[in-house]
Amino acid sequence: xxxxxxxxxxxxxxxxxxxxxxxxxxxxxxxxxxxxxxxxxxxxxxxxxxxxxxxxxxxxxxxxxxxxxxxxxxxxxxxxxxxxxxxxxxxxxxxxxxxxxxxxxxxxxxxxxxxxxxxxxxxxx
Length: 125
What we know:
Blueprint: H1 9-38, H2 46-82, H3 97-102, H4 110-123
Function: Transcription factor that acts by binding directly to the RNA polymerase (RNAP). Required for negative regulation of rRNA expression and positive regulation of several amino acid biosynthesis promoters.
Domain Zinc finger DksA/TraR C4-type: 83-117
Protein name: RNA polymerase-binding transcription factor DksA
């Protein structure tokens, strides 16, 4: 694929639809969690209560990760609308369709991401 064909209208439309579906799924999961947590079950056994509380804690951790992903999804949709999606924030080079298929919220090329991870590993956050 030539550079002029990269992130053409069809590709942008594909990724926008994919990101919008992901956003819809994440919001649906959040609503289901809210409803699930509202259902209070009174259980007299302390072991059963502890199990229920642990399940709720696990569900909340999962939703917290999904909340962070939702923010990235919305940022990616905004990048598509601005015409900047698919380009590395650090280098300005194409991220690549294969990487975007695997991780549609990617904002760094594979090389830039590897450099960033190595820097974090060496120097910490």
